[in-house]
Amino acid sequence: MQTLDQDIKKRAFKRVYLLYGEENFLKRSYKNRLKEAILGDDTMNFHHFEGKGMDIPEIIGLADTMPFFAEKRLLLLEDSGLFKGSAEQLAAYLPQLPESTCMLFVESEVDKRGKLYKAVKKVGYAAELGRQTPAQLSNWAARLLAREGKKITGATMELLLSKTGDDMENIRSELDKLISYTLGRDVITAQDVEAICTTQLTNKIFEMIGAISSRKVQRAMELYEDLLLLREPPMRILFLIARQFNQLLTIKDMAGKGVAKAEIASGLKLPPFVVGKLLTQSRAFTREQLLSYLELCVETEEAVKQGRLQDRLAVEILICKRI
Questions:
Q1: How does pLDDT run across 97-113, given as a tens digit for each residue?
Q2: How far is CA 170 from CA 67, 160, 174, 183, 187, in A?
């Protein structure tokens, strides 16, 4: 990201950029910033292509065309799927791309072994914009709050992130709510976060499994009803329950082998604070109990698919089951 920031600041642009990865907020932010820096208000020299099946000869033809009364022509290609295939024609063309044209790719997935990816790396710059670490998210959120004259402690920030997860779009939305909620005050408290911030689906699943481990069936059912009221399909809830039991089993096994929390977080691609919470929760179950719950999740899914149980009832039975 530092390279992107420097190029935008210095207005010294490479011929090709590739933005890819899981963090859509960052991809959209850098896409817009690059477009603004390269073209400003110029729309005549901007061409936008989206989706698979792009006309490569047309794109090459536009790229070879001199910009109209401007320094640069910008071609934006989004979700092309070209980086998952060979794309030999475009890969062979990129080294010939005129200095007056900038080509910007925005993709979800890329094959780093492919010719097009290697051509971008050679001619321009490829930026992987993945999920940010808790420290990066905390610093970013704190900067956004500081711009609005707001302060927040480390403990309150951790509470906020535990509710929002690591999706930057969601964090930004919750920060906007907090800023509006605390008009007239400069310090955001834990009480503010609890009062105004929405707990994400995965956090409700975490709380539900905590209730299951504590034999608090009524609380687990209340959380299930909350999710149904939010129009979450029962089978989606079942999938998330199974995924969390699987994570708990994996973390329990890794911790039992002496693997450090940071290494577990890196291996599972989870924020360390999430791993810490899961590690604590895993201690409430034996390994055999976790395996039994995973088997029950599989049996529940089969019962629904075979028509032996209605999906909503099937998940209720799972939640109430004592193992």
A1: 999 999 999 998 899 99
A2: 38, 11, 6, 21, 21
